[in-house]
Each structure stands twice: as C-alpha cells, then as structure tokens.
Amino acid sequence: MRKLGKWDTTFKETIVELYMAGTSVQTLSEDYGIAKATIYTWIKK
C-alpha cells in the first residue's frame, strides 16, 4: 500500500521556487519544519 504524502504539490512547488530564488535548504527546513532530505528530494524532481 502506498503511503500518502503529507505535503501537497502546490506547497512543494513553492518550497522549490524559494530554493531557486536563493533561500538555503537549511533556512527552508528551519522555517517550515521540513527535513532537509525531503527538500532535496523535491528539488531533484
């Protein structure tokens, strides 16, 4: 059975856009409470 994601697509896209605009993964992780590994996974996609 597939585990449903906690974050919706729009939110993920927003985080990636913030990263592309220059916000560090560390800052995004701290500000939004998301694991750095999760953010890196979203960036790769």
Automatic annotation (TrEMBL):
<dbReference type="Pfam" id="PF01527">
    <property type="entry name" value="HTH_Tnp_1"/>
</dbReference>
<dbReference type="GO" id="GO:0006313">
    <property type="term" value="P:DNA transposition"/>
</dbReference>
<dbReference type="InterPro" id="IPR009057">
    <property type="entry name" value="Homeodomain-like_sf"/>
</dbReference>
<protein>
    <submittedName>
        <fullName>Transposase</fullName>
    </submittedName>
</protein>
<dbReference type="GO" id="GO:0003677">
    <property type="term" value="F:DNA binding"/>
</dbReference>
<dbReference type="GO" id="GO:0004803">
    <property type="term" value="F:transposase activity"/>
</dbReference>
<dbReference type="InterPro" id="IPR002514">
    <property type="entry name" value="Transposase_8"/>
</dbReference>
